[in-house]
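Progress note, sequence design subtask.
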């Protein structure tokens, strides 16, 4: 019998823990020593704050992260996007909107086996030749036989048998609710089932790249930040939910520990979040402001007794130059002649008009009359390319301390309630990146090394897994060992 004289080094593996909306302030500072399993990864590894894309929201951020392409190159700028320059043709950016290859697709072409679970914009399912996929929170449901949310399709039956009599949740069914006990039960149930499935996949399916995203961190931050943050206007130190976010993170850490103990010793580990979280001071009613300043003209007055979306009202487009969308950031649209059907701004005046508008928006004060630190972006100034229909301006009100509110009927420029349901938090630009070396390699010492960009993730993944990096990726490889040495020097 032939006997091998030399043992081949095992192929590298990478395990990626995605925590949507997880802020560095909680993981690196406030609770680092209360989270033993994440803490161990931090102590053995290297920590970075990871600067999100603009806009710093789930869609497009996870696709930016996993493709190393900015939102302009991807061609979508949030969940809902304008399909064309008509006034009412919108679409939801599902996986079908992502035309650039994401890192697991590149790995698939290189023959690497991947397991992908819950990464945003993976529904509808796009099959892999060498892997397994469970789709993300935009999946309509997991009960209809007509909806395919796993690849291979037979994986669905395995999951149903594993979790029976419960069903798999891609998201919290009702996270915008005032019933916080009900919300917390949903969150804990969803996360418990997700990690049961993750353990099953780790034990039963082959992989070299494994990436999952937990949405519970995002949902609990938005729902209960006011109970957690002493600087929040809703904060009550004696309130019943003052420790709810911490308790969820403690539970999550225990579940993560159950995965780490199953990792092979050659596996690299990364923990990433697409953005952070911060208190939401309130909302700026952008379309109310535009009406008051003469940019937006309605043919009818909205009902005073209820909130009404702009697209449910009749707009006099011939007299309208600007309208806006609500969300964690504001998307501002200009009604440009020759581009929009009833454009009111002459094309030759576009740039000067846009500059004046940007300054006007930045001059909106807070409700106390004090100036806000509002930032306004032009897409062509921040993206390598600008595809499809981008907003003419992107606005971070008070550096994301205030959200944009698009509905009408508030009776004021300011509101302290989210028009889409209860919400205590806005997004912060910095998420996290934790890298921990394989268990069979030396510790890197747990240093905090500054900031990396969200587009640095994908080329770094390919480098760790020894796969060539496409020339058109916009990020750079993070060299963890060199970074650590440079810091020591």
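Output:
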């Amino acid at each position: 019998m032939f006997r091998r004289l030399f043992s081949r080094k095992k192929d590298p593996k990478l395990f990626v823990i995605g925590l949507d909306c997880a802020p560095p302030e909680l993981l690196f500072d406030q609770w680092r020593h209360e989270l033993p399993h994440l803490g161990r990864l931090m102590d053995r590894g290297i920590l970075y704050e990871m600067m999100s894309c603009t806009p710093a929201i789930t869609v497009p951020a996870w696709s930016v992260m996993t493709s190393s392409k900015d939102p302009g190159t991807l061609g979508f700028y949030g969940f809902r996007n304008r399909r064309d320059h008509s006034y009412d043709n919108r679409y939801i950016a599902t996986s079908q909107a992502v035309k650039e290859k994401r890192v697991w697709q590149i790995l698939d072409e290189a023959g690497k086996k991947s397991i992908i679970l819950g990464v945003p914009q993976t529904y509808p399912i796009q099959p892999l030749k060498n892997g397994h996929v469970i789709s993300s929170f935009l999946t309509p449901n997991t009960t209809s036989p007509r909806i395919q949310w796993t690849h291979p399709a037979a994986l669905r039956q395995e999951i149903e048998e594993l979790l029976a009599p419960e069903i798999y949740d891609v998201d919290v069914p009702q996270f915008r609710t005032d019933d916080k006990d009900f919300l917390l039960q949903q969150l804990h149930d969803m996360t418990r089932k997700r990690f049961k499935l993750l353990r099953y996949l780790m034990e039963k399916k082959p992989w070299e790249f494994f990436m999952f995203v937990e949405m519970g961190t995002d949902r609990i931050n938005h729902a209960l930040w006011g109970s957690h943050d002493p600087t929040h206007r809703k904060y009550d130190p004696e309130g019943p939910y003052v420790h709810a976010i911490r308790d969820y993170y403690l539970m999550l850490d225990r579940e993560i520990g159950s995965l780490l103990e199953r990792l092979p010793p050659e596996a690299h580990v990364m923990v990433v979040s697409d953005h952070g979280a911060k208190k939401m001071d309130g909302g700026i009613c952008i379309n109310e402001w535009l009406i008051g300043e003469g940019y937006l003209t309605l043919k009818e007055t909205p009902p005073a007794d209820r909130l009404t979306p702009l697209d449910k009202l009749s707009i006099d487009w011939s007299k309208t130059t600007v309208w806006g969308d609500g969300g964690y950031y504001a998307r501002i649209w200009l009604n440009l002649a020759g581009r929009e059907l009833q454009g009111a701004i002459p094309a030759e005046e576009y740039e000067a008009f846009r500059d004046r508008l940007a300054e006007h928006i930045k001059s909106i004060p807070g409700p106390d009359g004090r100036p806000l630190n509002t930032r306004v972006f032009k897409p062509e100034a921040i993206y390598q390319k600008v595809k499809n229909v981008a907003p003419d301006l992107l606005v971070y009100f008070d550096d994301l301390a205030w959200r944009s509110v698009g509905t009408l009927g508030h009776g004021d420029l300011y509101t302290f309630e989210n028009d889409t349901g209860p919400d205590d938090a806005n997004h912060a630009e910095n998420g996290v990146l934790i890298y921990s070396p394989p268990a069979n390699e030396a510790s890197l010492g747990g240093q905090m090394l500054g900031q990396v960009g969200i587009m640095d993730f994908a080329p770094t993944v390919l480098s760790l897994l020894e796969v060539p990096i496409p020339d058109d990726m916009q990020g750079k490889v993070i060299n963890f060992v060199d970074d650590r040495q440079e810091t020591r020097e």
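The longest helix spans residues 180-204. Work on this subtask will continue into the next period as scheduled.
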